[in-house]
């Protein structure tokens, strides 16, 4: 082989090397895409929990300001882009809200002590609400890996 041909062979890549490099690139891209999907799901989950917390505070404030009972429909009245479950005082486990089941906020500034679990494909967040403030005093976050 002449010297010029040797130089071209030494600088060029074989088809196998190019395929291996492309496969590694596709693998890295796939992992990054899956990671981003998980981050977006977790962000939606946190947004749902924040909306439920905000609704509780606003409802309690509205009840006090208007001096009237405010009821929030637990079966469809809670903002959620996923699944919502509730647990009332004395109940051992979370359950789906029943049709017509409400969460009451009194004009005296007290709400029913309710625990709410919001969940989607990214995980679940459990919120325990204080009856005196309407704020979430307990928050447990479980993210699916």
What does this structure look like?
The strands form 2 sheets. This protein has a 4-stranded antiparallel β-sheet with strand order 2-4-5-6, covered by helices on one side. It is elongated and about 80 Å long. The protein has one domain. Helices cover 42% and strands 25% of the residues. It is an alpha+beta fold. InterPro entries: N_methyl_site, Pilin-like. It comes from Prosthecobacter fusiformis. This is Prepilin-type N-terminal cleavage/methylation domain-containing protein. Keywords: Membrane, Transmembrane, Transmembrane helix.
Question: What fraction of the residues are assigned to beta strands by DSSP?
Answer: 15-25%
Radius of gyration: 27 Å
- Overall number of structural domains: 1
What's the tally of helices?
2
Sum up the overall morphology in one term.
elongated
User: Which range best describes the helical content: under 10%, 10-25%, 25-40%, 40-55%, 55-70% or over 70%?
Assistant: 40-55%
The count of strands amounts to: 6
Mean pLDDT: 83
Give the low-confidence spans.
none
State the order of secondary-structure elements, H for helix, E for strand: HHEEEEEE
The largest beta-sheet arranges its strands as: 2-4-5-6
Q: Can you summarize the main beta sheet?
A: 4 strands, antiparallel
* Termini gap: 56 Å
Structural class by SSE content:
alpha+beta
Report the oligomer: single chain
Keywords: Membrane, Transmembrane, Transmembrane helix
Protein name: Prepilin-type N-terminal cleavage/methylation domain-containing protein
Organism: Prosthecobacter fusiformis
Transmembrane segments: 12-39
